[in-house]
């Protein structure tokens, strides 16, 4: 295709040629008036003109046909463009759908994972509520609403509470002589009935261990059935921790750590 | 309690209470500082004991805890680096401050919520009489 000339160029060269030949012809005609006639050359020129004229006509016809084809081409191109737009739209919609589905699947998978997780460790709702009450009622995880700087309440057991708890009194017990467990249970009850001088800290004693643990030893024993399984692991550590406990409580009762 | 072998029920009961209280004492950073200063964290027997106490993390035991923050400190105490750091008084004070601030988190949220509700209420009250006023 590149070696052929375009129709427009062919036409234009044709026209140029005709122009040149016509000029020659006219020059010849003018020269004929002044000089001798050169009829052979003249007829040649005329023939050439005629030839160029037919060439021109043929090229014009070709140009007309090409014009019709060009129109068809344009029509087809618009058609192609239209289809192209439609395909692009479809592609966009498919992409959106894919995104939505991917998000939906992802969320569904997460939900399934959460369900599996929840099912693997079921918790009795009543126990959950009991636990929530235990940790919240005493302000252990959430500060009381009227708490200010300088308020002695803390999210952890304070010095005084520690001393008045079972551990602290166990230390005194070891120093003072052997006391049995039921005596230790009854001792705080007795002092409560008399009305102690430090009501807050005594209240601290009870809040320290839940009332359930003190008043229903049966309950704690049944739960210790689980702890009993740990028994065989720790007889050695128990000896050592008893030593630690006794030194610990005796030193804590004599120190002012706060 | 000094005999090795099977514990009686009573001994088990006592041990339960003792360990319950002791593990919850870990929630107090000042107590941890106190223990660190007296060199308890250098005793391998004590370190083993802290490792053993991790059974309180199980739900069957954790439900008896009143101060659940102790479990976090129990985890931290498993690392030697933390045990070394808490000898430092500044460290203990910092932890205490942060703990108290965290403790106040829900309180702050609630106070903010109440404040915003009170403001909204005030706004509605203020907006009511304006149509009656002559402008």
TrEMBL record, chain A:
GO terms for molecular function: transcription coregulator activity. GO terms for biological process: regulation of transcription by RNA polymerase II. Residues 190-204 have a biased composition (Polar residues). This is Mediator of RNA polymerase II transcription subunit 4. The keyword Transmembrane helix does not apply. Component of the Mediator complex. It holds the Pfam family Med4. Residues 230-239 have a biased composition (Basic and acidic residues). It comes from the Eukaryota. InterPro entries: Mediator_Med4 (IPR019258). Residues 246-258 have a biased composition (Low complexity). Residues 185-204, 219-258 are annotated as: Disordered. The keyword Coiled coil applies. Keywords: Activator, Coiled coil, Nucleus, Transcription, Transcription regulation. Belongs to the Mediator complex subunit 4 family. Transmembrane segments: none annotated. Residues 73-107 form a coiled coil. It is found in: Nucleus. It comes from Daphnia lumholtzi. GO terms for cellular component: core mediator complex; mediator complex. Component of the Mediator complex, a coactivator involved in the regulated transcription of nearly all RNA polymerase II-dependent genes. Mediator functions as a bridge to convey information from gene-specific regulatory proteins to the basal RNA polymerase II transcription machinery. Mediator is recruited to promoters by direct interactions with regulatory proteins and serves as a scaffold for the assembly of a functional preinitiation complex with RNA polymerase II and the general transcription factors.
From TrEMBL, chain B:
One of its GO terms (cellular component) is mediator complex. It comes from the Eukaryota. Keywords: Activator, Nucleus, Transcription, Transcription regulation. The keyword Glycoprotein does not apply. GO terms for biological process: regulation of DNA-templated transcription. The keyword Nucleus applies. It holds the Pfam family Med31. GO terms for molecular function: transcription coregulator activity. It is found in: Nucleus. Component of the Mediator complex. Component of the Mediator complex, a coactivator involved in the regulated transcription of nearly all RNA polymerase II-dependent genes. Mediator functions as a bridge to convey information from gene-specific regulatory proteins to the basal RNA polymerase II transcription machinery. Mediator is recruited to promoters by direct interactions with regulatory proteins and serves as a scaffold for the assembly of a functional preinitiation complex with RNA polymerase II and the general transcription factors. Belongs to the Mediator complex subunit 31 family. This is Mediator of RNA polymerase II transcription subunit 31.
């Amino acid at each position: 295709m590149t070696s052929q000339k375009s129709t427009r160029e062919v036409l234009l060269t044709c026209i140029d040629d005709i122009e040149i030949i016509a000029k020659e012809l006219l020059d010849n005609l003018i020269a004929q008036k002044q000089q001798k006639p050169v009829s052979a050359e003249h007829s040649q020129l005329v023939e050439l003109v005629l030839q160029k004229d037919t060439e021109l006509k043929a090229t014009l016809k070709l140009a007309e046909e090409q014009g019709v084809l060009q129109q068809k081409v344009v029509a087809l191109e618009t058609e192609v463009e239209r289809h192209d737009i439609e395909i692009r739209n479809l592609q966009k919609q498919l992409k959106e759908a894919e995104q939505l589905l991917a998000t939906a699947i992802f969320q569904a998978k997460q939900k399934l994972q959460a369900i599996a997780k929840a099912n693997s460790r079921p918790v009795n709702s009543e126990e959950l509520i009991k636990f929530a009450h235990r940790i919240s009622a005493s302000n252990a995880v959430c500060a009381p609403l009227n708490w200010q700087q300088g308020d002695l309440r803390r999210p952890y057991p304070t010095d005084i509470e520690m001393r008045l708890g079972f551990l602290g009194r166990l230390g005194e017990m070891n120093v003072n002589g052997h006391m049995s467990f039921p005596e230790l249970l009854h001792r705080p009850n007795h002092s409560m009935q008399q009305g102690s001088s430090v009501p807050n800290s005594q209240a601290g004693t009870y809040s320290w261990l839940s009332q359930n643990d003190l008043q229903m030893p049966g309950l704690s024993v049944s739960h210790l059935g689980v702890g009993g399984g740990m028994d065989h692991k720790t007889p050695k550590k128990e000896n050592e921790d008893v030593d630690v406990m006794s030194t610990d409580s005796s030193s804590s009762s004599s120190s002012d750590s706060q | 309690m000094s005999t090795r072998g099977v514990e009686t029920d009573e001994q088990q009961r006592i041990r339960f209470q003792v360990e319950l209280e002791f593990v919850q004492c870990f929630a107090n950073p000042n107590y941890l500082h106190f223990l660190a200063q007296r060199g308890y964290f250098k005793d391998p027997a004590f370190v083993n004991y802290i490792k053993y106490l991790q059974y309180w993390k199980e739900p069957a035991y954790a439900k008896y805890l009143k101060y659940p923050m102790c479990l976090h400190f129990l985890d931290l105490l498993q690392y030697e680096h933390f045990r070394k750091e808490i000898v430092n008084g500044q460290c203990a004070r910092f932890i205490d401050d942060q703990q108290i601030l965290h403790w106040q988190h829900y309180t702050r949220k609630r106070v903010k919520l109440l404040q915003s509700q009170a403001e909204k209420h005030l706004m509605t009250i203020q907006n009511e009489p304006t149509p009656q006023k002559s402008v």
